[in-house]
TrEMBL record:
It comes from Paspalum notatum var. saurae. This is Retrotransposon protein, putative, Ty3-gypsy subclass. It comes from the Eukaryota. The lineage of its organism: Eukaryota, Viridiplantae, Streptophyta, Embryophyta, Tracheophyta. Transmembrane segments: none annotated. Residues 120-179 form the Tf2-1-like SH3-like domain. InterPro entries: Chromo-like_dom_sf, Chromo_domain, RNaseH-like_sf, RNaseH_sf, SH3_Tf2-1.
Length: 259
């Protein structure tokens, strides 16, 4: 039972939206992958401010292979443009180290990463999509959205509703939170009218079950009622007398349908 209770609490939709995380955002720092072959991945830097040579060179372009740590030091000028550097790279680096290759080796992805998410999974969105006062006082995490595509190692495209068509649908993993259980029914809280005393009106919408309890003198009818803004799992048992007094037309229109 302890395990079932812990699982139920961890999958609570409200808790997943409101409870603060005590971990650093995932995906902010990504280690560089180890190159599989020499001169496949390089680093480069510039040493500038050097005395000008007779040929006009005043800088050194440093290109280092990440795998072997071997380096090339190419004299350059600060007035060079990108096209000149590209021609130099081909002439001084590609001509020496390049070779035809076909990468057909299996690339094992990160397993059990904190921000792991797969196509078809659902995630919560940490970015506030509201404006004005609602942005400040509303929940910071919104209802689950479906992942449709992985855009790079740490970004995902999610399926947004039509009313959010103007929002860019690609988000960094630090703005996503894995959804442990997708709620069967998601209530649109924007349609609920909040009263000044922070309450809202609820109305019965459906009868799910019926039972009768017999006392010494009378029989009392009970109805299992589903309320507006609530799912069937949150239905409550109410006395027939209470429903007739509080919602006089409800039983007349729904009791026959249930029967």
């Amino acid at each position: 039972m302890k395990r079932e209770i812990a699982k139920y609490v961890s999958e609570c939709d409200v808790c997943q939206k409101v409870k603060a995380d005590h971990l650093k955002p995932a995906g902010m720092l990504q280690p560089l992958a180890i190159p599989s072959w020499k001169w496949e991945d390089i680093h480069m830097d510039f040493i500038v401010g050097l005395p000008r040579t007779q040929k006009g060179y005043d800088s050194i372009w440093v290109i280092i292979d990440r795998l072997t740590k071997s380096a090339h030091f190419i004299p350059v000028k600060t007035i060079y443009h990108a096209k000149t550097y590209a021609e130099l790279y081909i002439a001084r680096i590609v001509s020496l180290h390049s070779e035809f290759a076909y990468n057909n080796s299996y690339q094992k992805s990160l397993e059990m990463a904190p921000f792991e998410a797969l196509y078809g999974d659902h995630v919560y969105l940490r970015v506030s999509l509201m404006k004005g006062c609602e942005r400040e006082v509303g929940t910071k995490i919104h209802r689950p959205f479906k992942i449709t595509e992985q855009c790079g190692p740490i970004a995902y495209r999610i399926e947004l509703p039509p009313q959010l068509a103007a929002v860019y649908d690609v988000f960094h993993v630090s703005q996503l939170k894995k959804c442990l259980r997708v709620p069967e029914e998601v209530v649109d809280t924007s349609q609920i009218q909040i009263e000044p005393d922070l309450t809202y009106e609820e109305n019965p919408i459906k009868i799910l079950d019926q039972k009768q309890r017999t006392t010494r003198r009378t029989k009392i009818n009970f109805y299992k009622v589903q309320w507006s803004n609530h799912s069937e799992e949150e239905a409550t048992w109410e006395q027939e007398e209470y429903l007739q007094t509080k919602y006089p037309g409800f039983l007349l229109t729904t009791a026959n349908e249930y029967v």
